[in-house]
Amino acid sequence: MTSKKTTLLVMAAGMGSRFGSLKQITPLGPHQKALLHYTVYDAVHAGFDKIVFIIRESFAQEFIEFVGKYAEGLVETKYCFQRMDKLPGNLPAIEREKPWGTAHAIWCAKDEIHEPFAALNADDFYGSDAFVKAHDFLAQDATDKEFGLVGYRLASTLSENGTVSRGICESDANGHLTAVTERTKIARQADGSIKDEDSGILLHDEDLVS
């Protein structure tokens, strides 16, 4: 089977309002690397042929200097701006500072993507296996009408420092995704159970989350 070329779309236009700064370019750890340095490394080693960063014009130079040039040294790299006036059809621009969500980010990057692609957030850590699974699905199995989601065990995504928000995935007998329900206050309880503290719903270690 011929392997298709693949692109990774990195959504890095967020403002970091809750974090207090631009988390996507915040250095951490002994080597003072951003999470995105690990994302780029893992994506390239998984086989992705191109990385497209969707960013904001206001911090483009800083982003390219800290993260972009690292990516450029490893793989074909493109940049797109998530502009509020870039909308489909004749929709009027709306005055707002915070970027729209995933669908709008993909729309803004569409002219740079001509092959199967995966999209992810710049400020999350995914782990190398996630990139291998995503790449192999796109390179071998994906069609124009078939899509995939890399899921995680809920127990592996909990925090010892407070509650987390997760999309709880439901699937049918064939493993096809049927629903994603957002739970915004999930935590491990003192008795070892996992609960969404907003709804009181009990969850399970093996629940699949996005």
UniProtKB/TrEMBL annotation:
<dbReference type="InterPro" id="IPR029044">
    <property type="entry name" value="Nucleotide-diphossugar_trans"/>
</dbReference>
<dbReference type="InterPro" id="IPR005835">
    <property type="entry name" value="NTP_transferase_dom"/>
</dbReference>
<protein>
    <submittedName>
        <fullName>Nucleotidyltransferase</fullName>
    </submittedName>
</protein>
<dbReference type="Pfam" id="PF00483">
    <property type="entry name" value="NTP_transferase"/>
</dbReference>
<feature type="domain" description="Nucleotidyl transferase">
    <location>
        <begin position="9"/>
        <end position="164"/>
    </location>
</feature>
